[in-house]
Amino acid sequence: MNLTFVTELGETFSVEIDPQMELENVMALLEAESGIPISEQSLSHEGCDLRDPKATMRDSGVGDNSVLLLRRKVHVPGTSRSVEQDAEMMRLQLLGDPNLMNQLRQVRPSFPLPKHPSLPTFMQPKC
């Protein structure tokens, strides 16, 4: 199967792999191609993070000619948390606070509303 990986900097890497290759092995291959260490890689496909290192690409829903996002996790010195985790925490706080959501909608009216009014966006199934 042919896969294309795109970084946030716009770099692309095309690799040919077996559909039964596990995520951890794909990440090792990407380390050699991109120079991004496995510990700093974050992969997503169609908006869903791929997290299970033992899952095959096929089991993860990745098909031939798919495009995946390869992000580098950035660790803030002096903490064990990543910037990615902090951004997610901020997003969850925003979604859980109706006052902040109203302020955001006033500033940016095009901000999308959750699909199900009783469930915040982060709780709605995507993957």
Automatic annotation (TrEMBL):
It comes from Dichomitus squalens. InterPro entries: DDI1_N, Ubiquitin-like_dom, Ubiquitin-like_domsf. Residues 1-70 form the Ubiquitin-like domain. GO terms for molecular function: aspartic-type endopeptidase activity. Transmembrane segments: none annotated. Residues 46-57 have a biased composition (Basic and acidic residues). The keyword Oxidoreductase does not apply. Belongs to the DDI1 family. Keywords: Aspartyl protease, Hydrolase, Protease. It holds the Pfam family ubiquitin. Residues 42-61 are annotated as: Disordered. One of its GO terms (biological process) is proteolysis. This is Ubiquitin-like domain-containing protein.
